[in-house]
Design brief:
alpha/beta; 13 helices; about 40% helix; about 15% strand; binds S-adenosylmethionine; binds 6-(5-methyl-2-OXO-imidazolidin-4-yl)-hexanoic acid; binds iron/sulfur cluster
């Protein structure tokens, strides 16, 4: 019997988790919020051991997937996401900039490749791309693809047919986050609803694109609501290939700037629960790393995080310096996935 199965036996009574493993690993809907919450409640050491055991069944534990982000269209967004520095209605000092040129994007993608990133993600502060916008983004996707990088885009809500156009241009992944649980969602965003997000995700999947979908914690949600987010993600069939877990970056001028910081160990628990419930997905330790410190990041990797954003900027906020990340990876013996 594998170690993870032994652990499974010892904790299944604590979590009430009678999940069918075959179904779970295929991403079939099988995680009730109560079962996910029970994982959160495990003793920390049991939770991490279980997460690391699951992780080792599916991944090299010392390999890290490395993505670089570029904000191709910054600021001026009409949406009201309470956490976001790019919403026009929040006075954060982020300027409304035009869409970058193809040349600027190619230069940034070449630099990302040269620094060791294997995925390049282009983000736009739009509710969703207008047809004219999309026509300008398609050559960028094609160019990133032609450089031999995995391409990812996060452009907001997609209308029918847009995902197919992105796929045809060579897009590998589309990022669209659920952000939080259905119950908490209305307190964070009112200009689009949960179902709009699910509809876009279903178009992405329908077009044959890989799905990158996660959320943000530390927005004042309860543990039950964090469990609700993870259950939503884990019950997608199939589960998202990439799951970014963002720790809220509290930006001055946003309504969430004064939120109480999430206990770092609760953040680590969230990563562990994501790993256990989505065993084959890349779990990305996303926004919030700069504020985290090396020890908490190391615990996140132990809990099964195996992907990061690399480069000194996320979209508009800071990320650890590349040299600091290389030093941390060296210390931990983590190797960038090629
Ligand atoms: N506008 C598009 C959309 O909302 O889908 C794409 C860009 S949007 C900035 C991408 C994601 O960034 C959001 O869904 C959210 O999860 C994350 N994000 C934005 N601001 C954040 C913050 N202050 N802290 C953590 N994550 C944040
Ligand atoms: C995701 O889940 N996190 C990234 C990426 N997908 C696009 C964005 C984080 C943004 C953090 C705030 C900022 O830099 O503006
Ligand atoms: Fe706009 Fe995306 Fe920011 Fe929401 S998260 S305000 S949609 S850029």
């Amino acid at each position: 019997m594998r170690v993870s199965e032994l652990i499974e036996q010892s904790v299944s009574s604590a979590t009430g988790d009678q999940r069918n493993h075959a179904a779970g690993s295929a991403g079939a809907a099988s995680w009730t919020v109560a079962r996910v919450e029970a994982l959160f409640k495990l003793p920390f050491n049991d939770l991490l051991f279980r997460a690391q055991s699951v992780h080792r069944e599916h991944f090299d534990p010392n390999s890290l997937q490395v993505s670089t982000l570029l904000s191709i269209k910054t600021g001026g967004c009409p949406e009201d996401c309470q956490y976001c520095p790019q919403a026009a209605r929040h006075d954060t000092g982020v300027e409304n900039e035009p869409l970058m040129s193809l040349e600027e994007v190619v230069t940034a993608a070449k630099a990302a490749k040269a620094s060791g990133a294997t995925r390049f993600c282009m983000g736009a502060a739009w509710r969703g791309p207008k047809e004219r916008d999309l026509q300008q983004v398609l050559p960028m996707v094609q160019a990133v693809h032609d450089l031999g990088l995995e391409s990812c885009a996060t452009l907001g809500l997609l209308k029918p047919g847009q995902a197919e156009q992105l796929k045809q241009a060579g897009l590998d992944y589309y990022n669209h986050n659920l952000d939080t649980s259905p119950e908490f969602y209305g307190q964070i965003i009112t200009t689009r609803d949960y179902q709009d997000r699910l509809d876009t995700l279903s178009q992405v999947r329908g077009a044959g694109l890989n799905v990158c979908c996660g959320g943000i914690v530390g927005m004042g949600e309860s543990r039950l609501q964090r469990a609700g987010l993870i259950a939503q993600l884990a019950n997608m069939n199939p589960a998202p290939e990439s799951v970014p877990i963002n720790n809220l970056v509290r930006v001055e001028g946003t309504p969430l700037s004064e939120s109480e910081a999430l206990d770092p160990l609760e953040f680590v628990r969230t990563i562990a629960v994501a790993r256990i419930t989505m065993p084959k997905s890349y779990v990305r330790l996303s926004a919030g790393r700069q504020e985290m410190g090396e020890a908490v990041q190391a615990l996140c990797f132990l809990a099964g995080a195996n992907s990061i954003f690399y480069g000194e900027k996320l979209l508009t906020t800071g990320n650890p310096e590349a040299a600091a990340d290389r030093a941390l990876m060296d210390k931990l013996g983590l190797v960038a996935q090629s």
